[in-house]
Write a structure and sequence with these properties.
Elements lengths: L3 H18 L4 H9 L5 H11 L12 E6 L6 H12 L3 E3 H11 L2 H12 L5 H12 L7 E5 L5 H13 L6 E6 L2 H15 L6 H24 L3 E5 L4 H11 L5
Bound molecules: adenosine monophosphate (AMP).
Adenosine monophosphate binds next to helix 5 and helix 6.
């Protein structure tokens, strides 16, 4: 196992070699902006600007993340950006369920009313759906999971599923946003998007479900040493940069 410093240097060396091949030393581009001895973030940013190859591939062959955050925490928005940046699929269980509802499948019919009330769809349905999705070849290099796990049973089930599929796990990233701000943001989104479950009644239920059932999942990942907490307040770009910092190795 490499120390964070060694790992950082190894990552930079590999990055420099890649850049060198194209005749543009990373240091010359990055040091003026980030100062001498720039860290992995500089490598990440520089790499994002200069190449189609996602930076995490310099130190790992997969990137598997769970994004945790209350309704309105900005989880979906950040997940979509992470998908572009990391080049791994964004798997939103809410989106998968909404697709089933739209298609009028038996699963969709079973889920529709529960979702409209803001309650949780059954663990068994979710696990089956997730197993199908994670078994597809596009998840070989990783994924960003958004909306799952929502309770401790699902967190356990995910660990079991990844073990079965022989997939590793990197981080659970919690987007931390105070309650007052959540309510404000959801009200804004209700106007903008008109989601069926953004009625005041359903929003109250979803926030309560989050507090009662999903918040303990944060503790679960903390105890497993896999949690990283990111301040979700502020500018979208700033929050995104914080997430990138938080998923660097050795963080
Ligand atoms: P989301 O888009 O993540 O807010 O999900 C919308 C709704 O889909 C939730 O309020 C739940 O009714 C349902 N849902 C999404 N993910 C899950 C999950 N992991 N477990 C149970 N229900 C879920």
């Amino acid at each position: 196992v490499l120390e964070p410093e060694q790992e950082l240097r190894a990552g930079q060396d590999r990055f420099d070699r890649l850049e060198g091949m194209r005749g543009a030393p990373a240091r010359r581009v990055l040091e003026p902006e980030f100062g001498p001895g720039y860290g992995k973030l500089a490598v990440l940013r520089g790499q994002a600007q200069s190449s189609a190859r996602p930076a995490w591939r310099l130190w790992s062959d997969s990137m598997r993340l769970v994004l945790l955050g209350a309704p309105g925490s900005g989880k979906g928005t950040q997940a979509a950006r992470l998908k572009e940046h990391l080049q791994v699929p964004h798997i939103s269980t809410g989106d998968l369920l909404r697709a089933e509802v739209a298609a009028g499948s038996p699963l969709g019919l079973a889920a529709k009313e529960v979702m409209a009330r803001g309650e949780l769809v059954s663990d068994a349905i979710l696990l089956g759906m997730l197993e199908d999705r994670l078994s597809r070849p596009d998840t070989a290099g990783g994924f960003i999971l958004d909306g799952y796990p929502r309770n401790l049973a699902q967190a356990d089930a995910l660990d079991g599923l990844l073990t079965r599929l022989k997939q590793s796990f990197d981080y659970a990233v919690q987007l931390d946003v105070p309650m007052e701000l959540l309510v404000e943001r959801i009200a804004g989104r209700a106007k903008a998007e008109g989601r069926a479950d953004d009625s005041p009644e359903s929003v109250r239920t979803r926030l309560k479900v989050y507090d009662d059932q999903t918040a303990p999942v944060i503790e679960y990942y903390r105890q497993h040493g896999q949690l990283t907490v990111v301040d979700g307040v502020g500018d979208l770009d700033d929050v995104f940069t914080r997430i990138l910092e938080a998923i660097q190795p050795g963080h």
